[in-house]
């Protein structure tokens, strides 16, 4: 019934065919992707899909929030570790202590200042779930919804209908996300959105990485070396809302253009660590460009990030509990603490809808949003 309503609001026949019949056309015979039941919410089953390749790597993704719950990859000795933070059971992802571990975040990732914006001359007020501001789509953003899922050849495809007025946002939206684990260690995520009314769209994946293993915490995070391919960053106020100013990273703590040991710089960053949007070079040649690289020297593991987005939010888990507090209890009973992981969230600039000098974030009917991010894991030789 909902899909009929959406189609009546001028969605194309092509989009209707994709969303309605994608699961019918899907094949579940590909042995590189398997599915198991992983709990339920209000009687609705939550499924876990496992993607594997021939390099002893595997990724688990659940239909709640299109969330990555595990990424298992070898070190230089061949020992496998899970390198993303998360929970063993669905209850953990439903808890108020879940800081968006591994989730697909939307309809608008990051922050919207004062929880309001103007589109086509009309002011919209959306959920103010972060003080007077909006964070990651509101109280029940796309990270808190159950997605439909299907296996299509070597792809896991998840789809979601967000109704007109969802968390205050105008227009219905249909989102699809495909996940593919390649033989060279790349987890490719391809996000697409169509809408019925002009509305801001900005998705991201919110995985928390620690290449020593998900339980490495700050002791191992500080050993990571990081480089971010950005010569500018967006300045924010005390509420982490962009002021509109874009500054050069030159001669600042934001200059991560060469490999930098996190332990050497993290305590010098204002507000207790990195939680900032870095502006990537304009890319007009390739589908994706190099965004960042992280290396954990003792294990030899590295992560390279590629994307087609204009920005990346580099976040060092500053809001996880301090070491002298009770940590967030995650997988295998592990407690997660402040600076226990890092996020590289490719996306548009925060609060772009309220800044004319930022890249456009308004998606119009008839257009389509496409966001590609590749998380490529490997081992130093």
Main traits of this protein?
381 residues; mainly beta; Beta-galactosidase, Chain A, domain 5; nine-stranded antiparallel sheet; five-stranded antiparallel sheet; globular; disordered N terminus
Q: How would you portray this structure in words?
A:
- The chain is mainly beta and 381 residues long.
- It has one domain: Distorted Sandwich (Beta-galactosidase, Chain A, domain 5).
- It is 9% helix and 39% strand.
- A hairpin with a 5-residue loop joins strand 4 and strand 5.
- It is globular and about 60 Å long.
Strand and helix map with partners:
Elements: H1 2-8, H2 13-25, E1 33-41, E2 44-52, E3 58-62, E4 67-74, E5 80-82, H3 90-94, E6 104-105, E7 111-112, E8 116-119, E9 122-125, E10 134-135, E11 148-152, E12 155-162, E13 173-181, E14 186-195, E15 199-200, E16 204-205, H4 217-221, E17 225-228, E18 232-236, E19 242-248, E20 260-261, H5 262-265, E21 275-279, E22 289-296, E23 301-307, E24 311-315, E25 328-329, E26 335-336, E27 343-347, E28 362-363, E29 369-379
């Amino acid at each position: 019934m909902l899909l009929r309503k959406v189609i009546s609001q001028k969605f194309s026949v092509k989009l209707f065919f994709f969303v309605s019949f994608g699961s019918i056309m899907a094949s579940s015979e590909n042995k590189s992707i398997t599915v198991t039941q992983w709990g339920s919410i209000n009687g609705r089953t939550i499924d876990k899909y496992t993607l594997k390749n021939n390099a002893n790597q595997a990724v688990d993704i659940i239909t709640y929030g299109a969330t990555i719950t595990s990424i298992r990859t070898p070190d230089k000795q061949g020992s496998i570790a899970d390198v993303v933070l998360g929970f063993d059971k669905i209850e953990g992802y439903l808890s108020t202590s879940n800081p968006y571990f591994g989730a697909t975040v939307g309809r608008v990732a990051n922050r919207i200042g004062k929880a309001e914006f103007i589109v086509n001359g009309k002011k919209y007020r959306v959920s103010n779930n972060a003080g007077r501001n909006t964070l990651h789509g509101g109280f029940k953003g796309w990270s808190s919804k159950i997605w439909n899922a299907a296996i299509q050849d070597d792809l896991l495809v998840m789809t979601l209908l967000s109704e007109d007025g969802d968390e205050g946002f105008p227009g219905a939206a249909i989102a699809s996300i495909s996940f593919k684990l390649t033989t060279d260690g790349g987890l490719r995520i391809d996000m697409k959105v169509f809408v019925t009314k002009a509305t801001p769209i900005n998705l991201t994946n919110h995985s928390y990485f620690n290449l020593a293993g998900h339980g490495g915490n700050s002791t191992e995070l500080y050993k990571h070396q990081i480089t971010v391919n950005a010569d500018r960053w967006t300045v924010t106020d005390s509420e982490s809302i962009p002021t509109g100013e874009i500054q050069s990273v030159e001669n600042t703590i934001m200059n991560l253009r060469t490999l930098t040991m996190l332990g050497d710089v993290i305590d010098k960053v204002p507000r207790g660590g990195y939680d900032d949007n870095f502006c990537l070079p304009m890319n007009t040649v390739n589908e994706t460009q190099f965004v960042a690289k992280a290396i954990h020297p003792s294990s030899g593991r590295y992560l390279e990030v590629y994307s087609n987005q204009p920005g990346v939010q580099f976040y060092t888990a500053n809001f996880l509990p301090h070491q002298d507090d009770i940590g967030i209890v995650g997988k295998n009973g592990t407690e997660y603490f402040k600076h226990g992981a890092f996020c590289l969230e490719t996306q548009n600039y925060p609060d772009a809808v309220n800044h004319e000098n930022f890249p456009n974030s308004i998606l119009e009917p008839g257009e389509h949003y496409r966001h590609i991010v590749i998380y490529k894991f490997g081992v130093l030789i």
